[in-house]
Amino acid sequence: MKSVIISIIMFLFLILIHEFGHFIIAKKSGIRVNEFAIGMGPKIFSKQKGETLYSVNLFPIGGYCAMEGEDSESDDERSFDKAPAYKRFFTILAGPLTNLIFAGLIFAFVSFNTGTASTSIGNFTKNSPIEAQGFKVDDEIVEIDGNKINNFNDISKNLENYYQKHGKNDKISLKVKRDNKYIEKNVKVKFENKRPLLGFIPKNKDVGFFESIKIGFKEVGSMIVLMINVLKSLFTGKLGFSALSGPVGVVKEMGRQANLGIMNLLFFLGYISVNLGFFNLLPIPALDGSKIFTSLFEMITKKTVNKKIEEKFTIGGFVLLLGLILLVTIKDLISLF
């Protein structure tokens, strides 16, 4: 129960920093913010400070930064729709961008404290194919299929590229460095969930402060690429509805990661933050990406998007998203029992 409460608080914190990104840039841009809220539904706490109402709502499944004239017409000179297009663009972009920056800093913190995976073998997994073929702990993997290995991620990338073109029974060339000597063998890998694996756990290497920052933001980039590939798989049917998860599933997984240790939980928190940032950048009505797109359109063309048409698309998108969240939440609840 304790881990679930911690997970809900951390999930709400991600929503908080997302909405705070919108909030702070809106304030700096002179846009009126009517309400800044965490959670959805009935209010359990609220306080008016200046022009803005600060609220905490009952259901911990979201939040919002309600700007004057954002989703409806307003005569207020400080309304969102009367602000210059570039101010609207940066105000909306600030939300997902804050999530991505936060994720990069979280990954940097984790790598600085735990180190990062090297290309050297630290241990072998159960029934490791390369252990059975004579490889040893401390062997440093330098080439796969003739391609130079610069970091740990290069290993899985080269394995997947090779086996997309070859059969599962094919052997792949693996070159390692051992005691200043090079050993090269054609090895057979094993497959788990269609993924080719060598069957080893990498050694961790310590990283400095600046290197950890670089690793952290590189991890954000790698996750964005992964999410693009997941979207492609969903649209092409390679991944089904069961692969999606909603707030209940996220909180459940956060609870599991919390039991595995603080660094595991923080890494997963960073992963969810990347998800929030990335999906809010998609140009889908009711998501930030839709307003980013229309603001960018106005900046380039100097033409104003019809507000009434935009409102209808936003309402339609919101209903569809709400329906999807409801279906995914039902799926997640069923999986709990």
Structural overview:
The chain has 337 residues and is an alpha+beta fold. It has helices at residues 2-28, 85-114, 129-132, 152-165, 209-236, 247-260, 262-280, 288-301, 307-336, and strands at 33-49, 52-67, 116-124, 140-144, 147-148, 172-178, 181-187, 190-192, 195-197, 200-205. It has two domains: 1-112 and 249-336, no CATH class; 118-205, PDZ domain (Pdz3 Domain, Roll), CATH 2.30.42.10. Helices cover 53% and strands 22% of the residues. It has a four-stranded antiparallel beta sheet with strand order 5-4-6-7, with helices on one face. Strands 1-2 form a two-stranded antiparallel ribbon. A hairpin with a 2-residue loop joins strand 6 and strand 7. Helix 2 runs antiparallel to helix 7 (262-280). The model has no long low-confidence stretch (mean pLDDT 84).
Which SSEs are present, and which pair or pack?
Elements: H1 2-28, E1 33-49, E2 52-67, H2 85-114, E3 116-124, H3 129-132, E4 140-144, E5 147-148, H4 152-165, E6 172-178, E7 181-187, E8 190-192, E9 195-197, E10 200-205, H5 209-236, H6 247-260, H7 262-280, H8 288-301, H9 307-336
Antiparallel strand pairs: 1-2, 3-10, 4-5, 4-6, 6-7, 8-9
TL;DR?
With 337 residues, this protein is of the alpha+beta class.
Task: Tell me which oligomeric state these chains represent.
Answer: single chain
SSE run: HEEHEHEEHEEEEEHHHHH
Give the biggest beta sheet.
4 strands, antiparallel
Structural class, from helix and strand content?
alpha+beta
